[in-house]
Design brief:
There is one protein chain. By secondary structure, the chain is mainly β. The chain has one domain: Lipocalin (Beta Barrel), CATH 2.40.128. It contains no helices and eight strands. The protein has strands at 21-27, 32-38, 42-45, 52-57, 62-68, 73-79, 84-89, 95-106. Strands 1-2-3-4-5-6-7-8 form an eight-stranded antiparallel β-barrel. A hairpin with a 3-residue loop joins strand 2 (32-38) and strand 3 (42-45).
Amino acid sequence: MSAVAGLAIGGNVMAKELVPGQWELTGSGGAVQQICIVAGGTWYGTTFAAWGGQWTYDGTQTVIYGNYSSGAGNDVILVDNDPVWTEWQDDLSYQNVQNVVITHVKKKCDSAPVLVDRTVVNPAESK
């Protein structure tokens, strides 16, 4: 039986391996962002410009990692039975660790937003 058998459109993550598609991240602090998990191991933000990276499934959890703010900001999301989103700036002026609810939104992802004025704020604080 597939590890992703418990996943359904609009449902919370019930398995540790994520399928390609658009996912919503709701942090314990109330922040909401959406990302697109792309087959082959990449992802990008659909609600925050210039945010993306890689993902992998190691047999027990999905690990999502990447950057924003031209690489000055970093994210790691560990998706297991109790998903955790860790985020920090390279200069450590911002650090945050929070539990996150991950919900599959749809199979076909929205396009990545375009960065217009080169101003990037923290994804966890943007909504």
